[in-house]
Amino acid sequence: MQNNIRKIGILTSGGDASGMNAAIRAAVRYAIYKKIEVYGYYEGFKGLLSNNYKILSNNSVGGIIDRGGTVLYTARSEIFKTKEGLIKAKENLKKSSIDALIVIGGDGSFRGARDLNDLGVNTVGIPATIDNDIYGTDLSLGFDTALNVIISLVSKIRDTASSHERIFVIEVMGRNSGELAIRSGLACGADYVLIPEIKVDLVKISNAIKNHREGKRHTLVVVAEGAAKAEEVASSIKLLVDHEVRFSVLGHIQRGGSPSAVDRVLAAQFAKKAIDFIVSGGTNAMTAISNNKISIVDFKEIFSNTKTIDKELYDYSHILAK
Ligand code: ATP
Fold first, then answer.
1. Of 10, 102, 171, 232, which shows the fewest CB atoms inside 10 Å?
2. Ligand 1: which of 76, 84, 129 to mutate, most ligand atoms within 8 Å of CB?
3. What is the pTM of this model?
């Protein structure tokens, strides 16, 4: 049953993540295949307030599957969160006869989508954040690409660390989550991974580094930005270990770049699920992947739970770091 969905809106919100463009492309083309018109709103919820949109055609989303960032741009809007802002957004959607809205972003953006739903606007989220901190989905768009970027950067750092026999502390993103640090640490063969979910004991780590340096050309410490600052970690280690220590903050370079194959495929799968869900009359939920299956998870469930780290994987990565 088509549920009379004729027009949908789509926007990207919060921090940009690779794979957003691939999701926009897939959503537009699948919607048009389903005879649904798509309005692309610029700069997230800000564009909903100013009614800044463009009708998207198959051609208009050509050549973007491999581009990082988002062609619809993104923004953060405080006004949108107010009652007046939400009402204005709803009115603008109504004026254009939009039947449902796809929000591509993180959990902040989904709270905005939930608030619109509470006003009677059908909404569905597509998770996209390099932090991979959204409950209910194993992966969010952008996470795999960011991991691949980190791996290629750390492998360059490893070359110099090994040549000069240095200890390197590398700070990765992730906000309050250690997901990116755990997986990049494991994938890069890091010796120690510091994450916000587990109390950092720099004295213990420095002593461990001191005792384990024998026979090692380099030591790599990956620190999540939410756990500590790389510079401070490097200074503490230097104080306790009589050895050259350098640090590197990878920064925004982790966000950009052409999406990985995993993110492109996932973007297409999420877009299809989002549209099928809208067409079936669904609202107030996000697309997700769990145990390799694409599904739908209610916003309610997402907001009342916190994603936890894979502690077993974290411990295992330290077992391998011998
Ligand atoms: P990222 O994880 O990449 O930062 P995000 O979607 O969590 O992405 P936010 O900056 O938290 O990013 O949120 C994006 C926008 O969503 C905000 O600018 C605001 O307009 C809206 N938003 C955020 N939190 C809420 C909330 N609690 N209620 C309503 N709207 C919200």
1. 232
2. 76
3. 0.95
